[in-house]
Structures are given as structure tokens and as C-alpha cells.
What we know:
The chain has helices at about 30-45, 50, 100-120, 120-160, 165-225, 240-245, 260-270, 305-310, 360-365, 390-405, 475-480, and strands spanning about 5, 55-65, 65-75, 230, 235-240, 275-285, 295-300, 330-335, 340-345, 375, 385-390, 410-415, 425, 430, 440, 450-460, 460-470, 505-515, 520-525. The strands form four sheets. Strands 8, 9, 10, 11, 12, 13, 16, 17, 18 and 19 form a ten-stranded mixed sheet that branches. With about 525 residues, it is an alpha+beta fold. A hairpin with an 8-residue loop joins β10 and β11. The chain has three domains: about 5-90 and about 230-320, no CATH class; about 105-225; about 325-525, Pseudouridine synthase (2-Layer Sandwich). Helix content is about 35%, strand content about 20%.
Amino acid sequence: xxxxxxxxxxxxxxxxxxxxxxxYTPHPLAVLAAEEVQRYISSRHEWHEELNxxxxxxxxxxxxxxxxxxxxAYSGNLxxxxxxxxxxxxxxxxxxxxxxxKLEEANISAINRxxxxxxxxxxxxxAQNDLERIxxxxxxxxxxxxxxxxxGKEHRSKLRSSGNYxxxxxxxxxxxxxxxxxxxxRAIRERIDTATExxxxxxxxxxxxxxxxxxxxxxxxxxxFAEFRMLNIRGEERDLCSIFAPTAQQIPPxxxxxxxxxxxxxxxxxxxxxPVAMAEFWWGNSPRGEVRQHGLFYPACxxxxxxxxxxMLKGLDVEPNPLLEIVAPEPKIVWEDEDxxxxxxxxxxxxxxxKSGVRSAEEWAEERYSEAMxxxxxxxSTSGILIIAKSKAVHEALQKQFIARSVKKSYVAILExxxxxxxxxxxxxxxxxxxxxxxxxxxxDGRSALTHFEVEGYAAGRTRIRLYPxxxxxxxxxxxxxxxxxxxxxxxGDDIYGKSDKRLMLHAETLExxxxxxxxxxxxxxxxxx
Length: 530
């Protein structure tokens, strides 16, 4: 399980602190360990088809009595099981034969089959069709009753107008028709009620099975979470239920504890190994909707892993979050008048204040103007033109233009690869990847996102491109660039959808809008430094 490095690591100094798992540059030892794991999985031809679909792997560099080695793990299971000699075991192996999870999962699957059988049964289909038919017939019959009553009323009205009539007879006739109509309506209602009741009885059996399935699934999941007892270097043990209880979600998400990072740390702590450095990499194709690059390193996920790792890393000297140590330069003023100030926000500065304490353009503006309000936002890593209103009225007027999409924006970016199409349009709907905030993913049920692009040139195997976002979704340009159905190549320096570099090569270069006070078209420009 513990592997020795096959390459010479004599001259590589151990890190002074353990890897901050949610944002890191892999240590050279972790890179070497990952390369060895990649050679191993490449040699396992029986896994190629599964791995081509994509899987996250992890490595943990460890030390024991002065000797340095590494552990390897994968997220989830591999080839339908958790028992592979090269990799650390699962924290809890729910797939082993005879385990309560497999047994109860079989019971739930049996309930699923029952539900499917009942939902597709001829009796249920006949009851549904009968009820629909009876409702259609009832509608026609009720309409006929209504017409008959109206005709009778009109007939009596004509007789009364002629002066030749027996009022008592007409009253009796009217009473008889209304009584008959009431009887017919009651009979119709009874037919509908009988058919509805019959269908409801059949549906109740199905609904009861669904409730039982839901109850058993929940109980099984909670029992499983209780079996994941996560350690830290102090020997403190907590199960997933207690770890997630103080969080906003309270209940652990499905798959919690099965990612590579918790597996690696759990095995190290159980085996008396001191964690030195950690890294996770993606192997294979990108999942549909997500953006993952084959062979690149990725941070531990937030939704499933962050609460777990907060517990497991207690007692270790962990690197600080590098995002909190960013000191961005002061913004440059591009335009200013009595109503508006436009700045060139530097890469690394937040648009609005956040919990991290990193300096924001909002704070910068409020220090200078008492009523300053940020009109729109740029990602922390994106530089370029940012508009700030000096009053609430101006802010509201400008925001209306952004909502109406009448503001014209263009960004310049450098992409990692070559984009052959000289111009075009990208339309990929986006939504938040809840387990990996703030990552976005392409999804049919996401919010519409539209980008136009024009290639400006090529150099050193990279593409300089101008991007025109028609919508303004979070990470829109970054995802539209990196996704296989978009431009298919990430922006240079994109540490979320590509790989990190000195900075994210994305800059909001031009902005055109109507001045809310003068009514003039104002076009602002700030050239990218790259």
C-alpha cells in the first residue's frame, strides 16, 4: 500500500507545511508520485474503458521514521469494487459481500421493481383510461343537460309570450326538468367518484411503496454515514453525521467520505504515517457538463470534502489559503465625473467585499465616496473595467441597462490552445456545481448563457481572442472557453477550469453604455497588459 519512489528524490526538500487542499500548487514530490500512479493506471488495460470516462485520483506523500513514500487513492470505486492492492482501502467498504448496505440496497431495488411493475400494470392503465373517458363523457353529458334546460326555459318563455299557456303546467314542467337534471348530475358525479376512488386505491399501494423506499433509503444512507468514522492525527474520531451537523446542509451529501483525499488521510493516520503533501488529478475525459482536463491537478471539492478535511487536518501544520494572502495593486481610474467612476480592477482584487478579508473594489470606492455602489462584477482573477455609481439613483439607472443587456462589453483573453474558427457564437446554459463551488457546469436546466467571439491572432501555440458576453453569468467566459462544446481550450492561468499560471489571462477591455445623466453614449477602454 505504501509505495517507494522509483525516481531519485534525494535533492527535493520536504515542504515545511502540509498542502492546503482547496487551493494549491502541487509540491514536486506530489507531482512525482502522481506520475508514478499515472504510469501504473496506464498499464492496467482492463480499466482503460472505465477510466476514459474520467475519474479523480489522489496521492499523499508521507514520512515514516525518516523514510519518504506515497499512498494512492481514487474517488468512488474502481471496476465495481474498493479492493485494489495498489490503492488505499475505502474508509468504509460498503461493496463487500454480505455488508448491510448491499443487503438493504437489494431490498430497495426489489421495492423499485414492485413500483415499476405496478405503474406499468394493465389494471392501473385501464383505471387511468377509464377515469379520463368517464370525465370526457361527463363533460359532454353536463353540456347536454345545460342545453336541454336552456331549451326548455326558452320554450316556456315563448309560450308565456303568446299568452296561450297554463302557468301551473309550465311550473311543473320546469321543476321536473330541474329535478331530472339534478338526478343526472348526481349520477355523473357518482360515476366519476367511483372511478377516482378505484384509481386512488391502486395509486395508494404505489405511493405507500414509494414512501417505504424513501424511508429505507434515508435510514440506509444515515446508517452508512455513521460507519464513516474519520480520524485526524490527534486520534480524534468523528462520523460524517456529526461532521456535517453544524454545516448549512446538515446532512452529508451522497458520496461523502468516498473521495480520494479523505481516503488517503484516513489510511495514513491509521497506519502511523505522517502526511507531508497531497495532490489530486483528473484522468480521462471530462464528464458531460463539467470541465475537467486530463492529467491536470485539482483542489479537493467543497461540498463533500471541505467539512471532512477541516476535521481531518486538525493537528497538522497546514499552509494558509493562498487566496487570502493575495495583495492586489491599487486600481487605476479610467473615467470619472460627478455620477460615475470607472476603474481598471487589477487581477486578484475582489469586486465586492467577501468573508475572506481580501481587499475589494467596493471597499476601495467606499473609502473615497460615501454612497459608492458597485454596478456589476468581475471575477477576482479577472482584470478590467468596473463601473461604480456615486449615488443610488445612478446605480439603479445603470443596473437597468445591464439587466436589459444594452451594455456592450468586450474582453480579451489568451487561450491555452488553438481555436480554428475565426469567429462564432457559444450558447451553453450554466448552473452552479453545488459540490464544487464556485465552479459552474453546463446543464440543460441551467440559465441561458451566450458569448460571441473573434480570434485576433496566434502565438506560441496559443490563441488571442476577443469575447463578447451577451449574458453575464458567473464564470461564463471561462466555461465557454474551456468546455469541449465551447472553444475547447481554457484561458491561460485559469486555475479552476484549466491550470494555474502567473495570472488569469482575461481582461475586460471595453465597456459601452448610455450615461444615466447626460444620455450620451460612453465608450470606455483599458488595454490589457498581456
